């Protein structure tokens, strides 16, 4: 058997994109995948503008009949204030069923003369010397790419003793056929339930609704009742009857969400892409775009160190944006609730700052200083808008804000927040 130049484990978005990018550079690529999963589960469906650009660079375009084009997000605060519209700056995000994206990528892979696509086989283990053992035999290659997601066998082989990822939440997903969003061409983030609710158009005739349930959550037999009692009342009224029917009469798709910092990209002749590198809370919907951008960086890199540097430059800001939104939106302590209200005020009143925030959410601007500047601004507004009874209270609030900033300034902010405070709605 002829040994290829590159063996890519996993034919998901990151694996297919990596195979296509490396093949375009002249490599002979073997792409190996165990085949379709029988699980009915959620997977990436929202592609930020930076990820959509990565797809276009691979020659993939999608018809309007198979996807939706999104201008940004509309945030619905929990206190029934006016929703906040956040526009993507002169570009669009894509959303589509995960299987639609996978099918398009695999067609491109199958048509490429330098890629051999072998299904029904998986990589069992690998070494940093480029040796792999699979269910199809053993290979020695110049590069092994682990793109099998969170359970990557390539990562496990390189780091067999690392601790488990931190469990964050579980997400329930339903689709509503022939339904209309409150405002079309936008994703809707609804706050006020125990976890955020996301609504967006999946195809021209379907919308997706996801419900995030923070860990540990209710027992399995109580999940549907929990959704009906705690989440359904926050769904916009016209969609509520259809959402109730979907929750009670059709199978619900599930995803388990965990956190692992994006701090390990492989070693020597083994590179990791996408969720195999690390993964965050799905609130910011960065996972799919990370996989596509990792693949682009790997194909363009001269060596693993170069790839690691490129990916980390792209990952730092999205990882911190996701952590900040998680702490502000999901489990806000008192100081986080005040920061959240300050952030909402800025989004409503300052279009330039909102434009900058959306460029960072869209992964178009990955510089560090704009995020630091945004935190400094909203922290200053918290202090300016507060009525402090004495100097001691001022000092305590300043210390809380400094601690918040130090937490966010950590290279990989830990997903361990203070418990919700009974005063968390203070302003």
Keyphrases for this structure?
FAD/NAD(P)-binding domain; 19 strands; alpha/beta; six-stranded mixed beta sheet; globular; Alpha-Beta Plaits; seven-stranded mixed beta sheet; 12 helices
Q: Could you explain how this protein is built, in words?
A:
This protein folds into 3 domains: 6-45 and 98-164 and 260-300, FAD/NAD(P)-binding domain (3-Layer(bba) Sandwich); 168-258, Alpha-Beta Plaits (2-Layer Sandwich); 333-408, no CATH class. The chain has helices at residues 13-24, 49-57, 98-111, 153-158, 223-231, 240-249, 287-300, 304-329, 334-349, 351-361, 369-385, 391-408, and strands spanning 6-9, 29-33, 46-47, 68-70, 72-76, 84-87, 93-95, 115-119, 123-126, 131-134, 137-140, 143-146, 166-177, 186-190, 197-203, 206-214, 253-259, 266-267, 270-272. The protein is 38% helix and 22% strand. It is α/β, with parallel strands linked by helices and 427 residues long.
Q: What are the SSEs and their pairings?
A:
Blueprint: E1 6-9, H1 13-24, E2 29-33, E3 46-47, H2 49-57, E4 68-70, E5 72-76, E6 84-87, E7 93-95, H3 98-111, E8 115-119, E9 123-126, E10 131-134, E11 137-140, E12 143-146, H4 153-158, E13 166-177, E14 186-190, E15 197-203, E16 206-214, H5 223-231, H6 240-249, E17 253-259, E18 266-267, E19 270-272, H7 287-300, H8 304-329, H9 334-349, H10 351-361, H11 369-385, H12 391-408
Helix pairs in contact: 1-3, 1-7, 2-7, 7-8, 9-11, 11-12
CATH structural fold name of the largest domain: FAD/NAD(P)-binding domain
Largest sheet: 7 strands, mixed
- List low-confidence stretches: 419-427
Instruction: Give me the side-by-side strand order of the main sheet.
Output: 6-5-14-15-16-13-17
| Total beta strand runs | 19
User: Given the structure, what is the number of helices?
Assistant: 12
Rg estimate, integer Å: 22 Å
First CA to last CA: what distance? 68 Å
Mind telling me which CATH architecture of the largest domain this is?
3-Layer(bba) Sandwich
Q: Name the CATH class of the largest domain.
A: Alpha Beta
């Amino acid at each position: 058997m002829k040994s290829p130049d590159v063996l890519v484990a996993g034919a998901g978005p990151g694996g297919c994109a990596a195979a296509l990018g490396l093949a375009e550079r002249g490599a002979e690529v073997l792409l190996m995948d165990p085949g379709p999963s029988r699980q009915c589960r959620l997977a990436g469906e929202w592609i930020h503008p930076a990820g959509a650009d990565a797809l276009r660079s691979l020659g993939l375009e999608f018809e309007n009949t198979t996807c939706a084009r999104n201008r940004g997000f509309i945030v619905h605060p929990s206190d029934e204030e006016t929703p906040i519209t956040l526009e993507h700056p002169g570009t669009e995000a894509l959303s589509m069923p995960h299987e639609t994206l996978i099918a398009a990528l695999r067609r491109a892979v199958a048509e490429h003369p330098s890629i051999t696509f072998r299904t029904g086989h998986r990589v069992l283990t690998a070494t940093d010397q480029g040796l792999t053992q699979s269910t199809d035999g053993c290979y020695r290659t110049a590069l092994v790419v682990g793109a099998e997601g969170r359970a990557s066998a390539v990562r496990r082989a390189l780091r067999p003793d690392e601790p488990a990822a931190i469990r964050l939440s579980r997400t329930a997903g339903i689709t509503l056929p022939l339904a209309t969003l409150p405002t079309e061409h936008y994703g809707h983030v609804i706050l006020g339930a125990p976890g955020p609710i996301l609504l967006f158009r999946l195809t021209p005739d379907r919308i997706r609704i996801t419900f995030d349930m923070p860990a540990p959550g209710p027992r399995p037999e109580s999940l549907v009742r929990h959704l009906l009692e705690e989440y359904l009342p926050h769904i916009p009224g016209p969609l509520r009857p259809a959402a109730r029917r979907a929750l009670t009469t059709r199978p619900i798709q599930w995803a388990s969400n965990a956190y692992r910092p994006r701090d390990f990209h492989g070693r020597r002749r083994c590179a990791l892409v996408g969720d195999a590198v690390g993964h965050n809370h799905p609130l910011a919907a960065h996972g799919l775009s990370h996989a596509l951008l990792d693949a682009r960086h790997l194909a363009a890199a001269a060596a693993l160190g170069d790839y690691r540097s490129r990916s980390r430059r792209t990952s730092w800001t999205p990882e911190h944006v996701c952590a900040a939104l998680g702490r502000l939106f999901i489990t806000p302590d008192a100081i986080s609730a005040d920061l959240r209200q300050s952030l909402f005020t800025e989004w409503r009143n300052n279009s330039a700052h909102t434009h900058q925030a959306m460029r960072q959410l869209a992964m178009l601007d990955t510089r560090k200083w704009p995020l630091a500047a945004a935190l400094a601004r909203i922290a200053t507004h918290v202090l300016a808008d507060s009525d402090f009874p004495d100097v001691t209270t001022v000092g305590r609030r300043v210390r809380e804000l400094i601690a918040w900033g130090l937490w966010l300034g950590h290279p990989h902010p830990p997903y361990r927040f203070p418990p919700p405070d009974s005063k968390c709605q203070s302003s």
